[in-house]
Write a structure and sequence with these properties.
single chain, 280 residues, alpha/beta, Rossmann fold, seven-stranded parallel β-sheet, 9 helices
């Protein structure tokens, strides 16, 4: 396919959860900027369709990120096909365990951590040897604003994403010796199947955006492309002095209440009375 930019010319990326949502938006943007992308996902039909859409610039591999062998095989497939790996975007995820603390089962707890933490760890582990040999590379992990503040997601999801932030920072220290960077992105409310929920369709997404826009300081819900553009910068040579950071992309949600939701006395324009001591 023709490219619209050259920020990733010659680079190779592996994207987990690459068949839909943020992963698919990132794959499209990366290939538009000259990258070749391996789409790693469990959704065979969606993954194959996206790979066909992107043409020679993409390849699909069925991957369960909780299975180490699957992740290792995907990394090996990308290196075998294109000779290198410049970026791994560990993006696969789901909402995980729901409900009150005392109703959370051990099984739900375990699978949530398996997908959201172990899957990220496996991606970094198997990309590391390739990037060390190259003495270059960019590791990008999807975290969440739920890692930074309470009230944005269920308990175990929030804990898992906090673990992703901590793991990213720790790995960044090790990999810096080989000129390999590790960063994570903390999305806010993004219009993806994860946030919208069941019945994902254009009509449902439109209603979701209308309902939630006023709660965002920037007055709109995020799009997958908003996260993809952050990932593009982190994958490119424009960010070679940036590592170990949690990049918040949330439309200002973690700043607090939107300005129009603040108390009226804070927003009211009026002259300020300046106190002057007697005799001055």
């Amino acid at each position: 396919m023709s490219t619209t930019g050259s920020r990733l010319n010659g680079k190779v990326a592996v994207i987990t959860g690459g068949a839909s949502g943020i992963g698919a938006a990132t794959a499209r943007l990366f290939t538009q900027h000259g990258a070749r992308v391996l789409l790693a996902d469990m959704r065979d039909e969606a993954g194959a369709a996206l790979a066909e859409e992107l043409g020679d610039a993409a390849q699909f591999e069925r991957v369960d990120v909780t299975a180490e062998a699957d992740v290792a095989n995907a990394v090996a497939a990308a290196e075998r096909e294109w000779g290198r790996i410049d970026c791994i975007f560990n993006n696969a995820g789901f909402g995980g365990a729901l409900g009150p603390l005392d109703e959370t089962s051990e099984e739900d707890f375990a699978i949530t951590l398996d997908v959201l933490v172990k899957g990220v760890f496996f991606g970094m582990k198997h990309a590391a040897p390739v990037m060390k040999r190259q003495r270059s590379g960019s590791i990008i992990n999807t975290a969440s604003i739920a890692a930074l503040q309470g009230g944005w997601a269920p308990h175990i999801y929030s804990a898992a994403k906090a673990a992703v932030v901590a793991l990213t920072r720790s790995v960044a220290l090790e990999m810096a010796e080989w000129n390999v960077r590790a960063n994570c992105i903390c999305p806010g409310l993004i219009a993806t199947p994860l946030a919208v929920g069941r019945g994902f369709s254009d009509q449902v997404v439109a209603r979701f955006k209308d309902a939630m826009a006023d709660e965002q300081p920037i007055q709109r819900v995020g799009e997958p492309e908003d996260i993809a553009h952050c990932a593009l910068w982190l994958a490119s040579d424009e960010s070679t002095f940036v590592t170990g950071q949690a990049h918040v992309v949330d439309g200002g949600a973690t700043l607090g209440r939107a300005w129009n939701a603040q108390p009226a006395w804070m927003r009211r324009q009026r002259p300020i009375t300046v106190y002057r001591p007697p005799g001055r």
